[in-house]
Amino acid sequence: MSERPLHPVQRRHLEELSGPLGIWQHAHGPLPDESFGYCTDDVARALEVDLLQRHSLGWERVSPSAWRSLAFLADAFDPASGSFRNFRSADGSWLDEVGSEDSQGRAVLALAHAAVQAPEVPMRQAAGSLFLRALPRVGWLTALRAVSSATLACDAALVGGLGGETERTFLRLAGRLRRAFATVDLEGDWPWPEPVLTYENALLPHALIVAGTRLADASLRRAGLVALDWLIRVQTARAGVFSPVGSGWWPRGGTRSRFDQQPIEASAMILACTAAFGATDSERYRRTAQTAYGWFLGDNDVGLPLADVATGGCCDGLSAGRVNRNQGAESTLMWLTALETMRLLRPQGRRAPARRAPAASLIAGELRL
Q1: In a 10 Å sphere around its CB, with 0-12 CB exposed, 13-18 middle and 19+ buried, how is residue 35 labelled?
Q2: CA quadruple 64, 100, 178, 258: dihedral positive or negative?
Q3: Which of 31, 191, 295, 326 has the most neighbouring CB atoms within 10 Å?
């Protein structure tokens, strides 16, 4: 299968989805549905997209959006609980007291990346300060995807020189991942720590690979690579296209859901393969990332594109024989993340990482050289 083209950066849909406080959560077709308001998950992802797109567009182009997202995350943080709230109405009022564990992990991941990557010193300082304030509560996360996001966040912060409590939290979170996979039969037919394969699955091996690399822990690294290899195998269709588990999930020993496939699965796979490529220098991970990228452009079980390369929007899912025409925040941000990650991963882009380059240097798909 030939490589899909790397399309120019387009922010038209991203800007149409953006309200005064951040990116709107949902859409009807390409139009934002303001009745659902905002959520911390998507605003955090929007900040990461801005950090990625600055390479192509320049910081001045994305800076207002990045500052708006950072202000949202600062407002989301509740000092009393030490946690981030998640859901926010169109008028700016918060609809929950403590957000989901996933939203905590995504918030600190975006903050860590901003603290290390933002070109402006004030933004790096503000993001780093908020990241450190959130660390105590983050250290007690238990949901595996949240733990994985927070592990990656701590690793990114350590790359940027934030030690002390960051390192202690990293070790605590990496220990949770280690215990989750301790009873997994890596040689068996289900090398996975959960009885059901659900969503954003490649995030777990991504975090394991990064943690194993930072700690020089061969067992952690191997668990991550074995789990990722298994995900690649079971999510590659006979035609060679990426075919992620659908939103009905896949219980062990049960029937696998084929549809509705979600853009977050393709982006998570690209990011995990980027980390695996950095850790192993194996070209097969770069090829798999390319296959997952092609999923957005029509190399999928239905043969229909989800990404609108002219506007930068992305459909919300792939169903049997059709796509979900709504272009909400998560889907759009996953496409934009995938595109910029592949731009950095392609050999004709920035120099590929040297063999055994620290997976810690792979921040949100950015090959920091």
Answers
A1: exposed
A2: negative
A3: 295
Q: Can you give the residue ranges of every domain in the chain? A: 12-367
The identity of residue 348, as a single letter, is Q
pTM of the model: 0.93
**For residue 77, what are the β-bridge partners?**
84
Cβ pair 66, 23 in contact under 8 A: no
**Alpha carbons 176 and 140: distance in angstroms, whole number:** 10
Please, which residues bridge with residue 242 across strands? 236
Does 260 sit behind a cis peptide bond, omega within 30 degrees of 0 on the bond before it?
yes
Lookup: tokens for 224 = 């991550």
Fill in the amino acid letter for 19.
G
The length of the chain in residues reads: 369
Per-residue pLDDT for the chain (369 aa), expressed as one digit of tens each? 678 999 999 999 999 999 999 999 999 999 999 999 999 999 999 999 999 999 999 999 999 999 999 999 999 999 999 999 999 999 999 999 999 999 999 999 999 999 999 999 999 999 999 999 999 999 999 999 999 999 999 999 999 988 889 999 999 999 999 999 999 999 999 999 999 999 999 999 999 999 999 999 999 999 999 999 999 999 999 889 999 999 999 999 999 999 999 999 999 999 999 999 999 999 999 999 999 999 999 999 999 999 999 999 999 999 999 999 999 999 999 999 999 999 999 875 444 333 333 333 333 334 332
Give me the residue label for tokens 């990228």: 293
- Tokens found for residue 123: 């933004």
For 76, counting Cβ atoms within 10 Å of its Cβ (0-12 exposed, 13-18 middle, 19+ buried), the class is: buried
